[in-house]
Amino acid sequence: MSTPEARLLARVALTWLTEPGTWSVHRLVDRLGPVAALELLLDGGAPEERLRATVAARTAAGDARAVAEQAVARTARLGARIVTPEDDEWPAPVADLRRLALPGASRRVDLETAPPLCFWVRGAWPLAEALDRSVAVVGARAATAYGTHVATELGYGLADRDWTVVSGGAFGIDSAAHRGALTAGGLTVAVLACGVDRPYPMGNTALFDRIVETGLLVSEWMPGAEPLRPRFLIRNRVISAGTRGTVLVEAAARSGATQTLNRTIAVGRTAMVVPGPVTSAMSVGAHELLREQPRARLVTGVAHVLEEVGRIGYDLAPVARTPERPRDRLDDEAALVLEALPRRGALGLDVLAARAGVDVRTAMRKLSLLEELTLVVRRDDGYALAPTPARRTTGTTAGGTG
Amino acid sequence: MSTPEARLLARVALTWLTEPGTWSVHRLVDRLGPVAALELLLDGGAPEERLRATVAARTAAGDARAVAEQAVARTARLGARIVTPEDDEWPAPVADLRRLALPGASRRVDLETAPPLCFWVRGAWPLAEALDRSVAVVGARAATAYGTHVATELGYGLADRDWTVVSGGAFGIDSAAHRGALTAGGLTVAVLACGVDRPYPMGNTALFDRIVETGLLVSEWMPGAEPLRPRFLIRNRVISAGTRGTVLVEAAARSGATQTLNRTIAVGRTAMVVPGPVTSAMSVGAHELLREQPRARLVTGVAHVLEEVGRIGYDLAPVARTPERPRDRLDDEAALVLEALPRRGALGLDVLAARAGVDVRTAMRKLSLLEELTLVVRRDDGYALAPTPARRTTGTTAGGTG
């Protein structure tokens, strides 16, 4: 029986030997476990000619196990961590990629859509928890002022309602969505197509720094990996599968963003599209999708998005295993009081009791408990939610290299 | 057996006694003919209490037959005409209103949707021919610059491809659609909710004058009739049924334009919606329709509209009886040559033959024939379509008071 460390190293070596998403590798790992799968591949025993050639080319360039060891060390130095399916914070819903099949697929990026082997993660929140209530907002890099405005509003509105905003960290729509979420003081996750140490594009460095502080940078590629063109398409399947739904804000005709939405539908998540002026080239792709894809839903704002992602009976999907948080230990009345607190600002005891639907005496008792748990603070103007550090405690303790 | 004149007078009297669209009147006319139906009503023999009360109130105010005679005389003085189902130019497709049933209807305007008894028409084209290849473009009066632009482009593009542009003559989207069609030198029809002698709104008088010159003003109400509020909704069913499809360009939330589109769908025509910026209040109604009405098709321009109205197998619908036009007598090759001519400008013989897919000798022979039929003129720069008068000849000969 292999050790957790050996299995982690094997997964890292496998992601270096072959691109993420390769079905034959996924099936080998499923059958043999990562350690034996790696051994088989390194011994030239890959079941497919093409995979054997890929592995041979890679091993000619370096020792997969040594590369993996260096990658793990580099990850630790970065303050990042590697998350594998064996970890508590592994986002279980990405396993739905097992059933992803794109009709009429012929390109490698459309065919090789297997679930990830592992994730590199930078940021304090446990990955599964961050993705539990999440919506992706994606779209054109060359966004218009209209698209940027709409994406910012969506990012803000979703984060303000405690939904995680997931996107790809690109210029344009992606950046606007991340920024909107950050402005709302909410959680945002950038899923990258390169190493988490050198998030692409460079011009978004300040944005990525802010995301790391309060949210997450996530990648299937090891530190130092370059954002090669096909990797964006490979990455997109994680955005689709890792969230409850994906909203497309702006897209040119036949763009990559429409391809993300087709993955979203194929993996059983909700595909949403924001229309725009028909005079705008940047909305042509959005309108194409609405015309040609009967399962794409037209949405015009946060209310529609929440209606859609609330509708799909997500509870039937595999429940992500998340670490326990202080608020999970609350009794019903304390939870009501906590829910009644505004996201920003404070409320007096009477108003708070009324909003929570409990009597004032109960509210007072529960607020004491919530203060002890550092979830609530008493201020001159009333009771308020504690600043985020209290909510991030669980995140930092769950850190490490998986 | 009554005379055509008596039947015409009876229909006019019936439209004055009761509002157009009243089912009980339609059924009476169907069963007894207009003359006997009028007699029955004037004798107090209406089959329904409510209809009897309506007729009694009207007859207290005047003599229906005398009013009808005055209306016919006034129509002739105006240079307008009355068109009834007995006339060649009656647009047969409006009979599809027989099958119109609006789910959940409770208001009078939603319930009383029977086919028209007669139309008042101003303009030279035969009504049926004008509506044969027609698309309605409707929308908000308080249109934005965006909506006005889109409606103008649609009006222009449809007219440029020889489609008649139908709308309601209102400010905003309607006016823009009419103007676009006029700019393209095409045919446009304004279906009014008042007399054709005093088209509403007054501010559009110059536009209505231009429409009368080359297109049509149409109404179910006699000259002098006022544009009462419910009449716009009653009128809308004619716009829906008289065209092959209706395009909604801009509409506020829960607007009257969305109601037109529900009629369009209920009567079996194609309902099309142009999306807009989600930040615009004037596109809220359009997006509502696209979200809630699965049969509403998103269109972004003329190409999409033509795809939709070409798709519905309109040939299966009752064919409008149209007077024969010179071009109907053409053989296949002559028709090809005629089709190959540009809407504006001229072409040389060689280019024309190539576009038509016939040899030069054939093209020359057919062009002589087309010249004789006054469909084509030879100019210094080549062959060109004859100016509109040649095409309007059939219209003026079919004029008169029906």
From TrEMBL, chains A, B:
Gene3D superfamilies given in the database record: 3.40.50.450
Domain Smf/DprA SLOG: from-to ranges: 83-309
One Pfam match: DNA_processg_A
Family: Belongs to the DprA/Smf family.
PANTHER family in the cross-refs: PROTEIN SMF (PTHR43022:SF1)
Protein name: DNA-processing protein DprA
Species the sequence originates in: Micromonospora mangrovi
